[in-house]
Specification:
- By secondary structure, this protein is of the alpha+beta class.
- Helices cover 29% and strands 19% of the residues.
- It has three helices and three strands, in the order H-H-E-E-H-E.
- It starts with a helix and ends in a 5-residue tail after the last strand.
- The mean pLDDT is 89.
């Protein structure tokens, strides 16, 4: 994992809406993996991976034994 992603690893497990303005600014331009909402799963919508691309997020998810097809990948933007 590159240095920038190691710095952002503390975001994993947190809801996207709970990030501070400074955290959103630091993560801007990176991708985050969030579990896809379905009525059957009702996921907590927590960040499960952060990386410079969706492919890097997929690699992180697979390394943790998670199925990447159950996630959506969103590009993070600054809070404003």
């Amino acid at each position: 994992m590159p240095a920038k992603e190691k710095e952002l690893s503390h975001l994993i497990g947190r809801p996207l809406d709970s990030l501070s303005i400074d955290e959103r600014k630091a993560a801007a331009g990176r991708y985050a993996a969030l579990e896809i909402y379905t009525p059957q799963t009702l996921p907590l919508r927590r960040i499960e991976a952060v990386g410079p691309s969706a492919a890097e997020c997929i690699a992180q998810l697979r390394a943790r034994g998670l199925d990447p097809t159950r996630f959506e990948f969103v590009r993070l933007t600054p809070a404003y």
